[in-house]
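Quick illustration for those who missed Monday's session on complexes.
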Amino acid sequence: MINVENDIAVSGDVRVAVIGVGGAGCRIASMLYGKMSRVGVIAINTDRKALEETSADVRLYICKEVTKGLGTNGDPALGKKCAQIHEAEITSAVSKYDYAYIVAGMGGGTGSGAASVVAELCDRAGVKVGAVAIMPFSFESGRAVKAADGFRALHAICSDIVKVENDKVLSVPGIGSFDEAMGLLNSTIVKTINNAVEDSKAIVRNDIARHMDGSFSGSDVVSVTPRIAGTGKSH
Ligand SMILES: Nc1nc2c(ncn2[C@@H]2O[C@H](COP(=O)(O)OP(=O)(O)OP(=O)(O)O)[C@@H](O)[C@H]2O)c(=O)[nH]1
Ligand SMILES: [Mg+2]
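Prediction with magnesium ion bound:
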């Protein structure tokens, strides 16, 4: 067995990006910005104002021609089209990384439609890609089917995907307000991504190691199921 830590010193740092797509994704991206060492934050949105309020290393506005800067108003086909129109910029932003972690809310238009396009562009650029998909509350009417479709499209590209069910927070005892519920959800998602990023670094290291030594048997990225009250992962 070779020493992975020594090899990474030779191979250089693993470059990881977190990519927030849509309103929820960009909110989480902002929360992570500046909090993780040597991790790039990319924010992608169809909503110009929300994007301007997002903290990130790179902010990609998609796209004036189609949405007039106001988001997709819940239309995943529009979200998908906007990401496709901006394919070149997205590819250029992601391609300097080894691993990207996409975070997006499902059930609206931008996250549901654009996240899988972003994942595919990462994949095509040779960037390993994982995702956190935030599923809507069941009381948000008309979102379940769009969310399920968006999740399926994303999962088709990312085997490494964490599904966060917003609904789960409703059964956490002692939550007094909606803001408190969102705060708990978002801080849990931030911790989950932090853990995932660390895992990703290890996984990419393992991959590098595997290329360098055929006997190395590092496992590939696994499919994970979230536990909303913690940051642990069950396989
Ligand atoms: N946990 C969490 N969920 C959120 C947050 N904001 C939105 N969501 C969830 O994510 C789903 C999608 O919402 P957005 O991310 O705002 O939608 P979008 O991708 O910007 O789509 P459009 O605005 O329709 O173009 C919502 O139905 C909510 O359930 C957030 O800050 N935290
Ligand atoms: Mg939006």
